[in-house]
Amino acid sequence: MLRGLQNAFEAVKEDSSANVLMICSAVPRAFCAGADLKERKTMCPSEVQFFVNSLRLTFSSLEELRIPTIAVIEGVALGGGLELALSCDLRICGDDAVLGLPETGLAIIPGAGGTQRLPRLVGKSLAKELIFTGRRVGGKDAKSMGLVNHSVASGEAHLKALEIARDINQKGPLALKMAKRAINNGLELDMVSALELEEDCYEHLLNTKDRLEGLAAFAEKRKPKYTGQ
């Protein structure tokens, strides 16, 4: 599965026509249940380290995709499964979803980005509580703490995500990429440097055909037809 994800992310990266990515599970009641602990028991420490490092690199490649990404969570998203969702820009779940990082109960820590992405999303104190206790939270609680963007009726997460994806897909493709770059990279900078980054991202859009198309469509009271140029 990990190799399949790596290949899929690479294909999306090379596909200039891709504007938004949704990650869904084909298995009912499970987005991703995390590591196979029975398999893990058969691994020596070096094999575990290699697998976790591969997982971390794969999720980083997902996070670094230039287009918006959406995790569609129905059922469980535990351990590496939640870390996969945390690597996306947006998360949509069903009310009966179960999210958590239970690693400390196995005498390890989240090793594929969980200790870094979770506090950046929900804050340091809450992230510590969730990781220290391994507590599992439902969809509504996940929404209230900012872990997911939307929690909807069970079975309807895909429809909600598709609605958002279609909305995103109508926007300027280059603008989406620059907005993602400005937000993600700017958060790691001081305000002065972050505003300089925003200026640079804005300047990348000034001489595009899409910017002119957006202005023309507004004046002519019609929907714009963006080409990513």
From TrEMBL:
- Keywords attached to this entry: Lyase
Q: Does the keyword Metal-binding apply?
A: no
> GO cellular component terms?
mitochondrion
- What InterPro entries does its record include? ClpP/crotonase-like_dom_sf, Enoyl-CoA_hyd/isom_CS, Enoyl-CoA_hydra/iso, Enoyl-CoA_hydra_C
Gene Ontology biological process terms, A to Z: fatty acid beta-oxidation
**Is Amino-acid biosynthesis a UniProt keyword of this protein?**
no
Concerning PROSITE patterns, the annotation shows: ENOYL_COA_HYDRATASE
Q: Name one GO molecular function term.
A: hydro-lyase activity
Give the signal peptide range. Answer: none
Q: Which family does it belong to?
A: Belongs to the enoyl-CoA hydratase/isomerase family.
Protein name in UniProt: Probable enoyl-CoA hydratase 2, mitochondrial isoform X2
Q: What is the lineage of its organism?
A: Eukaryota, Viridiplantae, Streptophyta, Embryophyta, Tracheophyta
Which gene codes for it? LOC115737078
